[in-house]
Amino acid sequence: MNKSKVFVIGLGLIGGSLAKALKGNETLYITGFDPKKETMEAALDLGVIDRAEPDIPTGASEADLIILSAPISGILDTLDVLAKVTLKPGVIITDTGSTKRVIRDKANQVLGSEACYIGGHPMAGSHKSGVFASKADLFENAFYFITPEDGEDKAKIRQLEEWLSATRAKMMTIDPETHDQVVGIISHFPHIVASALVHQLNRNPANKELDLPRLAAGGFRDITRIASSDPYLWQDITMHNHDVLLKLFDDWEQVLHTIKQQLVQHDSTSVYSFFEKAKNIRDQFPVKKTGILPPSFDLYLDIPDEPCEISKVTGIIGKANISIININVIELRESVSGVLRLFFQSESARDQAMRLLKDHHYNTYLID
Ligand SMILES: NC(=O)c1ccc[n+]([C@@H]2O[C@H](COP(=O)([O-])OP(=O)(O)OC[C@H]3O[C@@H](n4cnc5c(N)ncnc54)[C@H](O)[C@@H]3O)[C@@H](O)[C@H]2O)c1
Ligand SMILES: O=C(O)C(=O)C[C@]1(C(=O)O)C=C[C@@H](O)C=C1
Known about the structure:
Helix content is 47%, strand content 16%. The strands form three sheets. It has a six-stranded parallel β-sheet with strand order 3-2-1-4-5-6, sandwiched between helices. The protein has a four-stranded antiparallel β-sheet with strand order 11-12-10-13, with helices on one face. The protein has a three-stranded mixed β-sheet with strand order 7-8-9, with no helix packed on it. It has three domains: 4-174, NAD(P)-binding Rossmann-like Domain (Rossmann fold); 179-255, 6-phosphogluconate dehydrogenase C-terminal like domain (6-phosphogluconate dehydrogenase C-terminal fold, Orthogonal Bundle); 297-365, 2-Layer Sandwich (VC0802-like), CATH 3.30.2130.10. The radius of gyration is 23 Å and the shape is globular. It contains 15 helices and 13 strands. Helix 4 packs parallel to helix 5 (101-110) and helix 7 (176-203) packs across helix 12 (242-264). With 368 residues, it is of the alpha/beta class. Strand 8, helix 6 and strand 9 (170-173) form a beta-alpha-beta unit. The structure holds nicotinamide-adenine-dinucleotide and prephenic acid. The site of nicotinamide-adenine-dinucleotide has 31 residues, from helix 1, helix 4, strand 7 and helix 11.
């Protein structure tokens, strides 16, 4: 069979996950490049790609689809490199960058008019980075933004969507400007807020004495999970969506100012409305299977108070190559058996872990 060649440039979390998903399509042959030698080797060893390319021009010149999945600055640099390569006629170039306007402008500036660049952005990810965190099902049920230019050849858009359909994501066409505003609200600004909450905790004098992270319960952990993301990636994203974010700071300051004034004035009715309105809106969010806010699938189990009990549990799960995204020990005091709460990224991972632990005679249960 004459396979179409997909060349993935940047084999981290997103490039690796896309490569793995696209490998599920037998009509595609996946090649890859990453400037980090150890990432290339790992991508080959893990079977993420079929072939490692020695450099970008070599891989790009043979490709039918080129996917740019480096950090945004790397995507911009790669466009400069691609501009000097003789590409196959009909090749489609897409990217996964978290902002779209800057990349579209650069593609228009450096690629010839015959080149077909169609922007893309899968709306799923993680606070983890790198090829080892990549997963074939990362994008399942998530939205996948496609940002073609007005007048783009419809057959090309269909072809790209068909190749990307192996991700089982939901394709949505949007223009780059609207895209950047939308992701500013639902992704970029929340990352700033999550990191700001961590800074707020850290600078409070009580932190020195009481070690506040130790005391923080689920709420603080949930809302700040994304603050564990790669700082370089988020410097890069926020600097490339600068104008949208500055406007959102104005909105944010207004929201905080309003609730602050209500508290200053002891206006309990308005304070109630503040929380009630947010709850009503939040409660109507559609339930997601995976995607923008990957839910955690939690498993509880009783553990005896014995040395190394937690590492025994994580060892059993780790051996089966199942990732635990978080662990919480509930009421484990000396000589008293406790409850361990394990968080998984998917229902199937949680259920598999449950079966394994049952096989090892642990008492496991689910709580809604
Ligand atoms: N992390 C997320 O949740 C998420 C979600 C959707 C989209 N994105 C976007 O996808 C892209 C990749 O993000 P990621 O999370 O996979 O990051 P990552 O750090 O896991 O992977 C990036 C990879 O690109 C490589 N790289 C760095 N500079 C390069 C260059 N100049 N040319 C080629 N490769 C280069 C790195 O070595 C690394 O392997 C970014 O543009 C990001 O904005 C990220
Ligand atoms: O789930 C996470 O950890 C993410 O940060 C994923 C997330 C997001 O903010 O929702 C991050 C960046 C993207 O471009 C798309 C998705």
